[in-house]
Write a structure and sequence with these properties.
Elements lengths: L8 H6 L1 E4 L11 E6 L14 H7 L7 E3 L5 E3 L2 E6 L5 E6 L13 H12 L14 E8 L2 E6 L6 H4 L15 H5 L11 E7 L3 E6 L12 E6 L3 H9 L5 E3 L3 H8 L4 E7 L3 E5 L10 H9 L3 H7 L5 E3 L21 H10 L3 E2 L5 E3 L2 E2 L3 E7 L5 H15 L3 E7 H9 L1 H5 L2 E6 L6 H8 L14 H11 L4 H18 L2 E14 L2 E6 L11 E2 L1
Parallel strand pairs: 2-11, 2-12, 19-20, 19-21
Antiparallel strand pairs: 1-23, 3-4, 5-6, 6-8, 7-8, 9-10, 10-11, 12-22, 13-22, 14-21, 14-22, 15-22, 16-17, 17-18, 23-24
Helix pairs in contact: 8-10, 15-16
Length: about 525
């Protein structure tokens, strides 16, 4: 088992085991009803990149490893692992006596088939970047598999906890199975998919043949409602027992109901705006510094999030492995204007920036609506600050699926600003650093080009000492923060609405939520 030094106390505070007083208000004490912000794009965990969708699907699909609420990695379908004899080879020993929901035994051949499927370039796997270091797997014996990577990759056990590395029954990996719209894939999890109406509804029922701790609930109903008010209405009207997530404005209405409660869960997410590094105007670090000084993060925390957030202070989110406390950019419009003057930019008669009679280019600000509470409102607020500075912006706010597709393809080509709340369920700084900032990665929405990041990621991945690995991640992230390829805004707090009387629901900062022990008092 691979372990790294303890994460910040933030994660320990965020690992909430809920034990709420009061009687259950649910219509069925064997049932848990959940409403979530993200639509369920697919029942196949290989075919979605949504962290919240993966959190839901992990009730049915398991991985070789998992991340505990305290940030440590431990075995799930794998019982142990070791690196060697080469630093690009890992041997995983698998749990015996596990069967998929279709009755097929879980074994080394199933692992080999899943990894081959995930890496197959003919298969669309939106979150493949999280396991991009893999090159394949081979069977050693029935319950031992050897996994190979392109280069030394110390974070492999962590990476294999991601939802994209879920183990599906080999029968679910065939082309015919992929085309069968009426047949969900089979996993090994404590629940199985019983019925669905995508993208809005999925019903899970208890897997009575589960190898591990048996779930308390017989059924879990998950409904997707991207509209904040629709989600809140379902919760307030007793159509849902858990609401992922309540908006800051909705918190007051929930707290006014004696049957409901709101849990504050510190998150690892970081709201940032990728700057269009392909624009010549963005090549001057003074311009990027000015943009960061033009944002009043304290006021955003107060007005947009009503206290359910903290100002961002680093290039990776707090609580992830390798994070270290940094310095929040001050809100200082005079300083911002001075930096722009040094770079040759001053406001013209229109109030927008000009240099030698040439206007600052109008930049589109791309953002999502509904994936994170108040994400659209935040984008509107940021646009106002930028226009006050003299940077002309236009807003494009889309539903998350549309937004994310544009962020990966159109935004980099169009040199747009892109607002994103990044958070990786691996809770590892390398996943954040090497996915969001590495040159050529599809998550690098602003086309930030840094040879240092590429070099640092390679060094981190080949470092197997946990303390040294944490130091390298922090140093690499500090170098990125100094270069400012983004506007760093806030770190939100998850507000989870929970019906009183529900116990055993495990919530954590990385959205690796667990429903196995959930029950009604």
């Amino acid at each position: 088992m691979t372990r790294f030094p303890g994460r910040s106390a933030l994660l320990l505070a965020g690992a909430l085991l809920l034990g709420l007083a009061g009687g259950a208000a649910a219509q069925n004490r064997d049932q848990l009803r959940i409403v979530v912000a993200s639509p369920t794009e697919s029942l196949d965990p290989h075919k979605t990149s949504s962290v919240l969708s993966h959190a839901v699907l992990k009730s049915a699909f398991e991985q070789l490893t998992r991340i505990r609420p305290d940030g440590q990695v431990e075995g799930l379908l794998a019982t142990s692992w070791e690196m060697g004899p080469e630093p690009t080879t890992w041997t995983f020993r698998l749990r015996q006596g596990v069967t998929f929901h279709d009755g097929t035994p879980f074994n080394a051949e199933a692992v080999r088939a899943n990894i081959a499927h995930i890496l197959n370039p003919q298969v669309v796997v939106p979150a493949r970047t999280n396991v991009a270091a893999l090159v394949g797997a081979e069977v050693v014996d029935a319950y031992t598999v050897r996994i190979r990577t392109r280069q030394p990759f110390s974070g492999l056990p962590i990476a294999l906890s991601h939802g994209v590395a879920s183990m599906l029954s080999p029968a679910s990996l065939t082309a015919d199975a992929a085309r069968a719209a009426d047949r969900p894939p089979a996993g090994t999890g404590p629940f199985r998919i019983a019925s669905f109406a995508l993208p809005d509804e999925v019903l899970f029922t208890r897997n009575d043949n589960y190898w591990g701790e048996k779930p308390q609930m017989q059924r879990i109903e998950v409904r997707s409602r991207s509209n904040d008010q629709t989600r809140l209405a379902a919760f307030l009207s007793n159509e849902a027992d858990v609401n992922f997530y309540v908006t800051p404005e909705g918190r007051t209405r929930v707290q006014a109901d004696s049957a409901l409660d709101v849990q504050n869960v510190p998150s690892i997410r970081l709201f940032m705006v990728h700057l269009p590094m392909g624009l010549p105007e963005m090549q001057d670090v003074r311009v990027r510094q000015a943009l960061n000084h033009a944002i009043d993060r304290t006021q955003i925390v107060r007005a947009v999030f009503q206290g359910a957030a903290e100002p961002a202070d680093f290039a990776i989110g707090p609580g992830v492995f390798g994070y270290r406390k940094g310095t929040v950019f001050s809100y200082d419009m005079q300083r911002a204007a001075a930096l722009l003057r040094e770079a040759g930019w001053t406001k013209g008669a229109s109030g927008m920036l000009e240099r030698e009679g040439r206007p600052f280019p109008t930049i589109r600000l791309l953002a999502s609506r509904g994936r994170q509470p108040n994400d659209a409102r935040l984008a509107q607020t940021l646009s106002g600050y930028l226009r006050a500075l003299g940077v002309p912006t236009t807003l494009q706010i889309d539903e998350f699926a549309t937004f994310f597709a544009a962020a990966r393809t159109e935004a980099p080509a169009g040199n747009w600003m892109t607002q994103m709340a990044w958070g990786f369920p691996q809770m590892d700084g390398t996943a954040f650093l090497c996915s969001v900032y590495a040159t050529g990665n599809s998550y690098n929405f602003g086309r930030y080009n840094s040879e240092r990041v590429t070099r640092d990621c390679r060094q981190i991945e080949s470092t197997f000492n946990g303390t040294e690995r944490a130091r390298l991640i922090a140093a690499a992230a500090a170098a990125v923060y100094a270069e400012l390829p983004a506007i760093y805004v806030v770190v939100p707090t998850y507000l989870v609405g929970v019906r009183k009387g529900l116990t055993g629901l495990v919530l954590d900062a990385g959205e690796n939520h667990s429903f196995v022990r959930a029950r009604w008092q």
